[in-house]
Amino acid sequence: MSTPDAALLNDIREVNLSYLMLAQRLLRENLAAGMFRLGFSADVADIMLKLSPAQIVKLAGSSSVLCAFRLNDAQLLNSLTHEVLGGVLQQAHSTILLSSQEVTV
Fold this sequence. Notes:
105 residues; 66% helix; 0% strand; flat
């Protein structure tokens, strides 16, 4: 494997590991808020909470990025990049738009 490919796979593993560790932390600190922020169903949250450190490391070693970019709608992304009401309600607007997306099952 060439060095650029190896570096890319290493970067993917690092992103995966960071994401999985953050997901567990969010769920442990506040289950409902974590599920909302991550877009997880109760079943997915339950599985995430049960993962051991060894399982997380193994899962993070995937060559695919495990987290999903929730801003996959061009209109949604465009609206979030422009100021809403002079920027005063930008965070609330973002939360409302993201919460309208389907939960991962």
